[in-house]
Amino acid sequence: MVKRVLTIGLLLSAISEVQASDTLRTSLEDIISKALLNSKQIETSYLRIEESKLAIQQQRMELLPEISLHGAASYATNMPVYDHGLFNKPSQHDVIHYLYDTGIDFYLNLYNGHKDLMKIESRKLEQELASIAWANDKARIKLDVCNLFLDLERSYMDKTLIESDIVDQKAQLKEIKNLYTSGVLLHSDVLRMELELSKRELLLVQIDHDIQAFNQRLNFIIGGDATIVPIPHDFMVRVESYDESWAFAKHHAFVLQQSEQEVKIKQLAIKQSKANYLPELGIAGNFTFANPQIFLYPYNDSWYNLGIVGLKLKVPISAVYRNKNLVRVAKVALDREEVKHHLEEEHMQRQLLQAHLDYKLACVQRDVCLKNVGLAKENARIIKNRYFKASALVTDLLDADMEHLKTLFELETAKIAIQKHYYFIEFLKGTI
Questions:
Q1: What local confidence, expressed as pLDDT, does residue 233 receive?
Q2: pLDDT at 9 over 80
Q3: Which of 294, 292, 327, 267 is nearest to 75 (CA)?
Q4: Which domain holds residue 93?
Q5: What are phi and psi of 407, to 5 degrees?
Q6: Claim: this prediction has a pTM higher than 0.70
Q7: Which residues, including other chains, have CB under 8 Å from residue 143's CB and lie 6 or more apart?
Q8: Is 20 part of any domain?
Q9: Separation CA 265–CA 132 (nearest Å)
Q10: Do 118 and 150 share a domain, yes or no?
Q11: Which top-level group of life is the source organism from (predicted)?
Q12: Together in a domain, 171 and 255
């Protein structure tokens, strides 16, 4: 008997653990942390940063001297000399048939208009651009998770409200049925109440569907499969004024940071195109170990080695006319990027201003909804008393109940809207 009790206890404990694992009660911060760890977009952005770091290292390697080995083995045929004309028998000139050539070539750039250094600087700007894109992707994931989490939280609030209202409506319907049985009310009143109750139950089904949909989307982002239940939290924050937000966003908004980096890249491109006019100077060297010796006269078939080191200067005269349009193209590209940057600033200003206006509107709506809830509740109480005293119609009772429920939904929607607008403002500022 004791073994059976212990076995049953263990089974019940295992079942409760499985049920608990299927439900995940979590906060917004925990969901965001899991989303950041699971996001493939963020991983892609991070790998792009690593790629840019390696590109910088590779570009620095280009500053090192170029060293190469070469080797060749050849066979030369006899060389007939037609000293009496093409149609006469030629004489044979003695040649060395086997030729060998090995050696090392060396080149170290001393000056080329700082092209190599500007390439390194360009790679650094690309790395900075990749870092900004990585931060922007993280912020976008956070914003998406916040919106989904808040929608899920609102759905659970709506579910609680509608379930409570269904309980009240069922109790009211029971009371109305008792009065109908007593002959006080009409059958049509009972039918209308049952119809309204059925509509509420259908609304509950829709809310459950919304909860399931939001759960699926969140689980896809965080890589889980549990039913997520948001932990209620108090939202007490202070939103800066529009002027303060814009002053901060001008230097920290991800879109504007990306645009600024693009402008810097275009400015550097002008310097790179102008560097094509400048001469190139380097140290060139060659060490040869070869056979036969045909470098100096008289020739011989002995092995020899020879080293040559010197300066190599290249003056690109053709760049005067071939590079002119490249500089112009780079300047036009810079002008276009600067105009684009100003457009991004204007667009950011409009978005930020609209977000602040929407936030203020949501705060006003919340205050009005708080007032409306009290008014609707009192109105529903009065209509209910009048109905059961036979001084009000059933339609008045149903309208009053529905208006009260509607004000409760509107209040929760306004509270969630405030939080959504706040997080969107933080996203635009680059501080989410």
A1: 75
A2: no
A3: 292
A4: 67-111+281-314
A5: -65, -35
A6: yes
A7: 423, 424, 427, 432
A8: no
A9: 14
A10: yes
A11: Bacteria
A12: yes
Is the pLDDT at 2 greater than 80, yes or no? Answer: no
Task: Residue 24: count other Cβ atoms within 10 Å of its Cβ.
Answer: 20
CA distances from 352 to 135, 355, 421 (A): 19, 5, 10
How far is 240 from 425, CA to CA, in rounded Å?
Answer: 10
Q: Which residue has the higher pLDDT, 234 or 217?
A: 217
Give the pLDDT score at 298: 81
Q: How big is the chain, counted in residues?
A: 432
As for how many domains the chain has, the answer is 2
How far apart (Å, rounded) are the C-alpha atoms in residues 27 and 393? 46
Dihedrals phi, psi of 311, to nearest 5 degrees: -95, 140
Cis bond before residue 316 (omega within 30° of 0):
no
Report the amino acid identity of residue 94.
D
* Same domain as 36, residue 118: yes
C-alpha pair distances (Å), 226 with each of 21, 26, 229, 322, 362: 7, 11, 9, 65, 32
CA atoms within 13 Å, Cβ hemisphere of 198: 6
